[in-house]
Design brief:
- It contains 4 helices and 5 strands; from the N terminus they run H-E-H-H-E-E-H-E-E.
- The N terminus is likely disordered.
- It is elongated and about 50 Å long.
- It is of the alpha+beta class and 128 residues long.
- It has one domain: TolA/TonB C-terminal domain (2-Layer Sandwich).
Amino acid sequence: MKLVALAFILNLSFTQAYAQEEDKIYSLADEQPTYPGGMSAFFKYIQSEMQYPDAAKTAGVEGRVFVEYVIEKDGSVSGAKILKSLNGDCDKEALRLISNSVKWTPGKIDGKEVRVKMALPLNFRLPR
């Protein structure tokens, strides 16, 4: 009976450790996640889809919002959050842009798809 209990505990420990490894978020991967068409295509997406908040325009708000997000194993974007705020409306727009991007090619370590944390500054500049 003790042997069965020990085997069960070891199996449970292995399963739990494996599950934790599966959920690990890496800061750097052997192959970093890539946006379809590359980063130039991603910046074109940002530029074409950005809707400068009216209140920020009126107030003359310009600057950068730093956003952190995770590219999941399936290429979807999750966990977008503001690292450095500019103003509430610009922050919301930055989160909207990142969260609504198409699926990326996920990052890989040793050929296996992994979750990877990314960070990006988004510039808000009024036309001159």
